């Protein structure tokens, strides 16, 4: 059966759909010995597909889902040409090939999901689906509810729009505030840019929830575990609901 090249790669666990698009457009993917630059190029199981010269096999094996407590100081990538620490260093004992769902900045920490389910990763990470991500923010100074209202209305920075969906001041004094915020995108340094706009530096940033999955409080930084069947089911239900919503918008 024919399918799009980017979908074939995502299904094989190479990366999430958008990352597969980039691999194709960078000329790193070959089909039957020829470089293909179109993510929509149609392939079948009989085609020989390679990425950076390595054969890609879509065996239809079972999908794998896990969560990692990403510590500060690690890059959200599976390899780094400069030799810096990456999240792949923390998953050496995972027997399956998995890739991160979205990203966390190098100096951010907390929940990072991994899978080899390309479609689920695409839905969770693409901003058009507006999947909620919840963060704990340790910020300098006294953050007020009025300032969070400003962030809910949104700001403009370097020709891009930034906003939070929800915000709550948990604790606050003259020198330090603990704030909970919910975002639906994943722009680089998004929370820091937002808080700088209202005059507060982000001292520590922890992602504690993505969609229906909550960071396991028993996980220490750098440790991972497989998702439970209930967590996987909740993610699949969310994916189905969001895809159905997008289909309805088109009709």
UniProtKB/TrEMBL annotation:
Gene3D superfamilies: Alpha-L RNA-binding motif (3.30.70.1560), Pseudouridine synthase I, catalytic domain, N-terminal subdomain (3.30.70.580), RNA-binding S4 domain (3.10.290.10). Keywords: Isomerase, RNA-binding. Residues 3-61 form the RNA-binding S4 domain. The keyword Isomerase applies. Its EC number is 5.4.99.-. Belongs to the pseudouridine synthase RsuA family. This is Pseudouridine synthase.
């Amino acid at each position: 059966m024919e399918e799009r090249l980017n979908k074939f790669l995502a299904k094989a666990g190479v990366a999430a759909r958008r990352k597969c698009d980039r691999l194709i457009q960078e000329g790193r993917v070959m089909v039957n010995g020829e470089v293909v630059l179109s993510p929509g190029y149609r392939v079948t199981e009989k085609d020989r597909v390679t990425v950076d010269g390595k054969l890609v096999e879509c065996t239809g094996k079972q999908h794998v889902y896990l969560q990692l407590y990403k510590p500060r100081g690690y890059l959200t990538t599976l390899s780094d040409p400069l030799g810096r620490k990456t999240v792949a260093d923390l998953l050496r004992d995972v027997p399956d090939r998995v890739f991160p769902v979205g990203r966390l900045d190098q100096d951010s920490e907390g929940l990072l999901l991994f899978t080899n389910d390309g479609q689920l990763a695409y839905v969770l990470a693409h901003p058009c689906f507006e999947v909620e991500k919840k963060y704990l923010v340790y910020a300098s100074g006294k953050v007020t509810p009025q300032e969070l209202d400003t962030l809910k209305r949104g700001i403009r920075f370097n020709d891009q729009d930034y906003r939070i969906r929800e915000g709550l001041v948990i604790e606050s004094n003259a020198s330090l505030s603990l704030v909970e915020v919910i975002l639906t995108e994943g722009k680089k340094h998004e929370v820091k840019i937002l808080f700088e706009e209202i005059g507060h530096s982000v001292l520590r940033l922890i992602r504690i929830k993505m969609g229906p999955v909550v960071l396991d409080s028993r996980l220490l930084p750098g440790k991972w575990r497989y998702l439970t069947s209930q967590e996987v089911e909740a993610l699949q239900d969310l994916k189905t609901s969001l895809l159905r919503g997008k289909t309805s918008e088109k009709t």
